[in-house]
Write a structure and sequence with these properties.
binds flavin-adenine dinucleotide, 10 helices, five-stranded parallel sheet
Length: 381
């Protein structure tokens, strides 16, 4: 932002996408506030894999040292068939050794929250409405209060309330897959820097270390005839999960057995996405993260794309000389981001099908990993 009054931005949603946007915007000199519906910031007890494109954005947000400290760098990766034999694949069709970091979602959220100026996040604020006119935008909350801003960013997840002010409301699409995910203490025999995936017919199982290698994140993807409600908190039954992988590599059975032991946890999660949206913005309102492009996790990109969104949007808004330029920035953001994220959304569906047919036709990830969203946005300013 040039001289004069700083741009006022309201972010709705204090998940990883919303907090990353808050950090990126405040570093760009923008007056930003993040409104979260929960009474406290928090994340589910599970890990997330940060890929090179996301790590590049986290470096821009100044949290690389924290990521190295709290995360677990995956110095080796292994893609296996159900019985543990190596699965045939090209080097770029799976996470690459040394380039990914596993981190507990709560640790990532904390690292981002610590980078925000005091008072940026306001919890206990559930957004219920939105209006705008030529002079500004207003966000309404269930508390009966309202705030006004020059720009509003909907980072309110797959069930976004703000998305309905941009496109016709539509339900998320159930993929027919349920994920059992959680954490177990890392067994001594499991290497602290190894990411493993086992692929088979209609199922796959992913394991990677987080929290400096002390914990293992696991996700078992299995078919389900009934659509399970998308939820972070539904408990996942370890007995049902064990039955699904009973005749697979015994390493998987050992990990599942640890879910019921000390320090183990498990949740069940229906896998939903949406078809790419025809647009993300309306006037002073735009969308970010899962609110804009919810995707299946089969390329491990939901958080990584939200981080790209956050840095790209802040770079463009930071280049505005006045609030009058904000619509230009939102248009440039949408034009830059919509095509790429749509490719990742559709690629995630295809890659899941590849995993569930014993690793055939997996996606070459170079176009995802080598991209620098900051450089692409900066080139437009
Ligand atoms: C099984 C599984 C594994 C995954 N693994 C990976 C991975 O390895 N790598 C990766 O990059 N991604 C992964 N993802 C995807 C990733 O979890 C999501 O893409 C990411 O969490 C989206 O972040 P977000 O901030 O956009 O949305 P969310 O995390 O959904 O956050 C939205 C926030 O908005 C708040 N909110 C909602 N409505 C309102 C409202 N009306 N008012 C105020 N606040 C509101 C919510 O409380 C929440 O805090 C995985 C997903 C799943 C399901």
């Amino acid at each position: 932002m040039g001289e004069g009054v700083p741009l006022r931005v309201v972010v709705v949603g204090g998940g990883i996408g919303g907090l990353a946007a808050g950090v990126a915007l405040s570093r760009a000199g923008i007056d930003v506030h993040v409104y979260e519906q929960a009474q406290q910031l928090g994340e589910v007890g599970a890990g997330v894999a940060l890929a090179p494109n996301g790590l590049r954005m986290l470096a821009r947000l100044g949290v690389s040292a924290g990521i190295e400290r709290l995360g677990a760098r995956h110095v080796s990766t292994r893609l296996s068939l159900a019985d543990g034999r190596p699965a045939r694949h090209e080097p770029h069709q799976f996470a690459q050794a040394g380039r990914n970091v596993g981190i507990h979602r709560a640790d990532l959220l904390t690292l981002l929250a610590e980078r925000l100026p005091v008072g940026t996040v306001r919890t206990g604020h559930r957004c219920t409405g939105f209006t705008q006119d030529a002079s500004g935008a207003t966000v309404e909350f269930a508390t009966g209060t309202a705030v006004s801003a020059d720009v509003v960013i909907g980072a309110d997840g797959i069930h976004s309330v703000l998305q309905e002010f941009v496109v016709e409301p539509a339900e998320p699409v159930f993929s027919g897959v349920v994920a059992y995910r959680g954490l177990v203490p890392r067994p001594a025999e499991y290497p602290a820097g190894l990411m493993r995936m086992w692929v088979g017919e209609r199922k796959h199982f992913l394991v990677f270390p987080v929290r400096a290698g002390r914990l293992l994140n696991y996700v078992g993807f299995v078919p389900s005839g009934t659509s399970v409600r998308e939820s972070w908190s539904a408990p996942g039954d370890p007995v049902a999960l064990a039955a699904q992988f009973a005749d697979w590599d015994p390493v998987i059975g050992d990990i599942i057995a640890a879910i019921s032991g000390p320090g183990g946890s498990g949740f069940q999660w229906g896998m939903y996405d949406r078809a790419p949206l025809p647009r993300w913005s309306s006037g002073r309102l735009t969308l970010l993260g899962d609110a804009a492009h919810p995707m299946l996790p089969h390329l491990g990109q939901g958080v990584n794309q939200a981080l790209e969104d956050a840095v790209a949007l802040a770079t463009l808004l930071g280049a505005c000389a006045s609030a009058a330029d904000a619509p230009w920035a939102l248009t440039a953001y949408e034009e830059l981001r919509r095509g790429r994220t749509a490719r990742v959304q559709l690629g995630s569906r295809r890659n899941g099908a590849g995993y569930d047919s014993s690793g055939s036709q997996l996606t070459d990830r170079r176009w995802i990993y080598e991209y620098d969203a900051w450089a692409e946005a900066a080139a437009l300013t």
